[in-house]
């Protein structure tokens, strides 16, 4: 079951390491012979595992926090198999955090506090209050679970070596190579009529733009006039110092390989044709990585270890999962068995299209850049486990 939602787990965990999009919840298991943190919690046990249990109230908390931070998964949380995935993931983090060293618990609490403060600072106070109230969450609920997640990550980081960090860097070098580019995008959809544009028509227009640029017209001026990328047109088509790994494949390859200041031929992506000029490029160099970047790589490796545990060991410690089945409507749709509303804590902006495939590289928030640039889940792939 975990494998079915492997990519979801990746998205959730990387965001955790990246700071803002954290898989937060205040759910906590209890020892077999002990009570829950809330002595009044007499709700049914929905999962039991080697060393503890998860109650219905605790699992409900998990789902509410997931809806708070990941509204895009709200509909999935109506599905019985996704609920099964979430409760097993909850078990994994409870189990691993209970077994973590005291040093890891101290480091995890410190990291969680720092990340929580950064996260909350990026949201207006009244909006934060509204968002947490909608899901009936407190700041302490969020901090408690962040501490649990970061404790597991810090514990797994203990075994990470310098050689492993270097290897991880080489594997994901595109995340650290940056480029400053200008581009003009001709969409496959006419932005004025919202009607589909034939490829040959889009290409014809892109070639007209290319001809103007080759003739010496100012790139910024042409971009403002012709580009249909809302994220850069008004800035003369400019994206400055962006990790090339954030862009869709064809655009990324142009950013990596085009000779500086050369006007490209039309480059096709799923969004349209791009005319690109690379104005600057900084190749990644391990020796120049910041301590923060190295820590991020270490966290990614730790998350890989957590994922290995989920894939290979979790079934051995889970004793029983007995979640109530969701009711099904006449139309065949599954109705939610959870509480709370799907507050949008971080939806993408409307213009996010042409370049999206990977992670947001411009900030640690979930504000994705528009068409020729960033997307939604880059290194999510390697850090998947820190999710829940």
Explain what the structure shows.
With about 400 residues, this protein is of the alpha+beta class. Mean pLDDT is about 80; it is low at about 10-35 and about 330-388. The two termini are about 15 Å apart. The chain has helices at about 5-20, 55-70, 80-100, 100-120, 125-135, 140-155, 160-170, 200-215, 220-225, 250-255, 290-310, 315; strands spanning about 45-50, 50-55, 180-185, 240-245, 265-270, 270-280, 320. Helix content is about 45%, strand content about 10%. The protein is elongated, with a radius of gyration of 23 Å. The strands form two sheets. It has a four-stranded antiparallel beta sheet, sandwiched between helices. A three-stranded antiparallel beta sheet has the order 2-1-7.
Largest sheet: 4 strands, antiparallel
Structural class: alpha+beta
Strand order in the sheet with the most strands: 4-3-6-5
Q: Which word captures the global form?
A: elongated
Low-confidence stretches: 10-37, 329-388
Question: What is the first-to-last residue Cα distance?
Answer: 15 Å
Can you write the helix and strand succession as a string?
HEEHHHHHHEHHEHEEHHE
- Proportion in helices: 40-55%
**Multimeric status of the protein:** single chain
Mean pLDDT: 78
Give me the Rg, rounded: 23 Å
Counted by DSSP, the helix tally is: 12
């Amino acid at each position: 079951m975990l494998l079915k939602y492997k990519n979801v787990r990746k998205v959730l965990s990387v965001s955790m390491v990246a700071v803002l999009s954290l898989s937060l919840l205040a759910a906590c298991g209890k020892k077999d012979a002990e009570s829950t943190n809330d002595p009044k919690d007499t709700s049914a046990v929905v999962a039991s595992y080697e060393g503890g249990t998860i109650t219905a109230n605790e699992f409900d908390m998990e789902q509410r926090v997931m809806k708070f931070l990941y509204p895009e998964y709200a509909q999935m949380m109506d599905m019985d198999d996704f609920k099964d995935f979430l409760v097993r993931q909850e078990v994994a983090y409870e189990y691993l955090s209970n077994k973590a060293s005291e040093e890891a618990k101290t480091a995890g609490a410190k990291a969680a506090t720092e990340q929580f403060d950064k996260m909350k600072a990026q949201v207006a106070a009244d909006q934060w209050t509204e968002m947490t109230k909608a899901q009936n969450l407190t700041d302490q609920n969020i901090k408690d679970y962040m501490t649990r997640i970061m404790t597991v990550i810090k514990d797994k980081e203990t075994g990470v070596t310098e050689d492993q960090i270097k290897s991880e860097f080489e594997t994901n070098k595109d995340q650290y190579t940056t480029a400053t580019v200008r581009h003009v995008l001709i969409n496959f959809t006419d932005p004025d009529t919202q009607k589909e544009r034939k490829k040959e028509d889009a290409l014809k227009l892109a070639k007209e733009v290319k001809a103007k640029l080759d003739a010496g017209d100012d790139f910024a001026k042409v971009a403002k006039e012709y580009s249909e990328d809302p994220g850069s047109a008004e800035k003369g088509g400019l994206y400055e110092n962006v990790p090339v790994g954030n862009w869709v494949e064809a655009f990324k390859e142009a950013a990596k390989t085009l000779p500086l200041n050369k006007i490209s031929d039309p480059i096709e992506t799923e969004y349209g044709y791009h005319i690109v000029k690379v104005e600057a490029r900084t190749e990644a160099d391990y020796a120049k990585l910041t301590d923060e970047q190295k820590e991020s790589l270490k966290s990614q490796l730790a998350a890989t270890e957590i994922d290995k545990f989920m894939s290979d060991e979790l079934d051995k410690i889970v004793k029983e999962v007995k979640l109530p089945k969701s009711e099904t409507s006449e139309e065949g749709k599954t109705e939610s068995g959870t509480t709370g509303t799907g507050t949008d804590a971080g939806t993408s902006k409307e213009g996010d299209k042409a370049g999206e495939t990977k992670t947001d590289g411009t900030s640690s928030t979930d504000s994705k850049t528009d068409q020729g640039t960033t997307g939604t889940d880059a290194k999510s792939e390697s850090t998947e486990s820190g999710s829940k």
